[in-house]
Design goal:
With 73 residues, the protein is α+β, with helices and mostly antiparallel strands. The protein has one domain. Helix content is 32%, strand content 14%. The protein contains two helices and two strands, in the order αββα. It has helices at residues 2-15, 59-67, and strands at residues 24-28, 33-37. It starts with a helix and ends in a 6-residue tail after the last helix.
Length: 73
């Protein structure tokens, strides 16, 4: 189950990654996986809407994974 959660979290970060090359930091700890995107909010998001809507940052990768039924973005 942990592998599924980890894979889903990584996939989400890759699909939503900034096109401008912002790096994603992945820390693998004994009891958890920490994924950090050091980017900034994209223009269509404001702090009030965080966690309420999903926005694709990389439409090509999101579409690819959606077509192979690996995510719902």
């Amino acid at each position: 189950m942990l592998l599924n959660k980890c894979g889903a979290k990584l996939l989400k970060k890759i699909v939503k990654k900034q096109k401008k090359g912002v790096n994603v930091q992945i820390d693998i700890l004994d009891d958890r996986l920490v994924v950090i995107n050091l980017g900034f909010l994209i223009k269509s998001l404001i702090q009030k809407t965080l966690g309420k809507i999903a926005v694709r940052r990389n439409s090509l990768i999101a579409d690819l994974f959606h077509r192979i039924y690996q995510c719902d973005y």
